[in-house]
Amino acid sequence: MSAEATQTAAKQAAPKATTPDVAPVAAPATAPVAAPGTVHSAAPIGFRDEHASVADSAVGVLLVLVVLLGACLGGLLFAKRKGWLNRWLPAPSGAADDASRLRVEQVLRLSPRTVLYRVADERNRYLILESTASAQLGPAQPLDQATLPHDPHA
């Protein structure tokens, strides 16, 4: 036998290696061949849709902000009306009551920029001189010592 025949006989006589059961791999499908001169375009890549502008998103954020601020303001007004905030809000002082008893008895304009006021409360009278540069307070005579205008017909 020749050497070639020996090698061929050895290959045939050699035990075949056993392979695990593997499904046969199909050949990849090939793209259809376009005729020369025709343009084949692939499907576009699906990017995200950007029809909404930045202004639309900013308006949405501002709308939510306005709604939240309105809800907070409404809640505070409701709590104030119910009296739940009295612990944190200062009570009105008695100074407002004292100021309401003052009355202006007379106003005298001394110059275009200077005014003299006569002001009285329950016990005393005061003179207030006001100008563009300053204001001065001076006592006038108390009401019990004030001379009443003389009525000649009395």
UniProtKB/TrEMBL annotation:
<protein>
    <submittedName>
        <fullName>Uncharacterized protein</fullName>
    </submittedName>
</protein>
<feature type="transmembrane region" description="Helical">
    <location>
        <begin position="58"/>
        <end position="79"/>
    </location>
</feature>
<keyword id="KW-0472">Membrane</keyword>
<keyword id="KW-0812">Transmembrane</keyword>
<feature type="region of interest" description="Disordered">
    <location>
        <begin position="1"/>
        <end position="23"/>
    </location>
</feature>
<keyword id="KW-1133">Transmembrane helix</keyword>
